[in-house]
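Students often ask why inverse folding is considered easier than folding. One informal answer: many sequences map to the same fold, so there is more than one right answer. In these notes we will look at a single instance of the problem. The structure comes first.
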């Protein structure tokens, strides 16, 4: 037994020595072979995972060429101008919209309520949200175009609160020229609708100007329906609607397609964010204001067209900053552009959209753009930021087609007439140099008879001259920059450019 144990111990010692010398026997050899096989299999797997260099290059190329997944697009953006006769409730309605959409908190409202009460103007507190300067709050009249922002589920809106007083019509024109859609605010209070609608009232003039300036869609909100003289009366609402519809048609609106009437109370917010309670107004089955705004469809804009941004304001802030609405094309940070008509080449340093910095912006957006290459004093309101490859025309004389909407006291319109021209953000004195031909309103064709003067309702082609170079486009190419208004002492002419001519500055 002792001999067998000794033999076994010697065998074990021998096996350990062989193993340490790299010689494998028995079970040890089997385990090592299995380990080597596993290593070979792992190596094969690695070789299969790593593609050859050509395949790597192909995949890298495909990754570069593969379009990046689209980032979720922003909500659509619309500019909405509030227009109408003085005291119709435009600023109050705008302020109520901001409150209902969460842009203004309760504490701020309480502060404005106290301020209005101290001035013995308790019902004005909502207007203080839009009317921010002391002059406007003291007099209760909007002077400058107020600007604010709010959102619904589908749309971002920029509110443009236009002044209603006839002394500030040029400011109203400035606001309407930036708008996509209009909200015409009419007071239902006894006597107030009649004052605004009568000849010379701002309800009529604002409608005509809005249509002329390209505001193609109109919401007519009959405000102050909760007033004791109205008390949500269907008869009063129907009376206002029946008087407004023929006038809107005569101003060029397609009432069935482009106009919607609805009753509201801007002061208390009835029928604005949610539909009015049936107990308050049992006869109304239509939408509330927010629903109506969301449902409005406007024509799509071309983000790939030549860039056009009429400048409405400028200031200094770490460089030269300009403000305006993009009418065509898109702009990106780092772009080289042109300021017309002074032909200054500039570079875009930063873009701000609705107070937020952005790398790129498209048509319809209200922007602040920081530029290099130009000083603030070298820019005037009415200049246009545009693409270098396709700059806008700068002219001192052009041919246009005019429709005479209203001449006071049966005056005549003839060569030598002087007026004020409003086109995009330009306000410039002009003179009618020559009447070229009169257009038959029925056939829309030129009349053969030579024309020396025309009266109310006439359509005429004429040459217009201005003192300084202005930026205009053919109406057929850019309706937004080829549509304009002439005014003098309350007279209004709807017009559009037919072609730029003579003394071109570019």
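Output (designed amino acids):
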């Amino acid at each position: 037994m002792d001999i067998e144990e000794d033999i076994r111990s010697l065998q074990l010692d021998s096996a350990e020595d062989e193993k340490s010398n790299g010689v494998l026997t028995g079970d040890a050899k089997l385990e090592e072979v299995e380990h080597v096989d596993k290593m070979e299999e792992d190596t094969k797997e690695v070789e299969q995972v790593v593609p050859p260099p050509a395949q790597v290059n192909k995949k890298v190329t495909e990754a570069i060429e593969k379009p990046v997944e689209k980032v979720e697009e922003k909500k659509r953006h619309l500019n909405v101008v509030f227009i109408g006769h003085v005291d119709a409730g435009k600023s109050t309605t705008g302020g109520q919209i901001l409150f209902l959409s969460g842009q203004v908190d309760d504490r701020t409202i309480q502060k404005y309520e106290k301020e209005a009460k101290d001035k013995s103007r308790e019902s004005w507190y909502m207007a203080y949200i839009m009317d921010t300067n002391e002059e406007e709050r003291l007099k209760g009249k909007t002077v400058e175009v107020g600007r604010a922002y709010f959102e619904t589920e589908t749309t971002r809106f920029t509110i443009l609160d236009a002044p209603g007083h006839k002394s500030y019509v040029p400011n109203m024109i400035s606001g309407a020229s930036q708008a996509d859609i209009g909200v015409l605010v009419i007071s239902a209070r006894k006597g107030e609708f009649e004052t605004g609608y009568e000849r010379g009232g701002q309800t009529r003039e604002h409608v005509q100007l809005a249509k002329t300036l390209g505001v193609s869609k109109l919401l007519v909100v009959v405000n102050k329906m909760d007033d004791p003289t109205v008390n949500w009366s269907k008869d009063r609402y129907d009376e206002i609607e029946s008087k407004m519809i023929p006038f809107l048609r005569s101003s060029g609106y397609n009432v069935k397609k482009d106009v919607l009437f609805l009753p509201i109370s801007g002061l208390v917010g009835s029928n604005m964010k949610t539909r009015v309670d049936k107990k308050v107004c049992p006869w109304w089955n239509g939408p509330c204001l927010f629903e109506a705004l969301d449902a409005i469809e406007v024509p799509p804009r071309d983000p790939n067209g030549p860039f056009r941004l009429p400048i409405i304001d400028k200031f200094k802030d770490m460089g030269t900053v300009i403000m305006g609405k993009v009418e065509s094309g898109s702009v990106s940070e780092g772009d080289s552009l042109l300021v017309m008509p002074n032909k200054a080449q500039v570079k875009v340093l930063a873009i701000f959209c609705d107070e937020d910095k952005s790398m790129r912006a498209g048509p319809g957006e209200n922007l602040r753009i920081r530029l290099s290459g130009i000083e603030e004093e070298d820019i005037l309101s009415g200049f246009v930021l545009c693409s270098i490859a396709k700059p806008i025309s700068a002219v001192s004389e052009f041919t246009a087609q005019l429709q005479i909407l209203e001449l006071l006291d049966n005056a005549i319109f003839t060569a030598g007439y002087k007026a004020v021209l409003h086109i995009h953000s330009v306000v410039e004195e002009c003179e009618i140099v020559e009447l070229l031909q009169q257009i038959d309103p029925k056939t829309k064709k030129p009349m053969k008879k030579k024309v020396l003067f025309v009266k109310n309702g006439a359509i005429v082609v004429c040459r217009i001259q201005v003192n300084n170079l202005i930026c205009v486009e053919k109406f057929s190419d850019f309706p937004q920059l080829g549509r304009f208004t002439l005014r003098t002492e309350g007279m209004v002419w709807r017009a559009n450019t037919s072609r730029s001519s003579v003394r071109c500055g570019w």
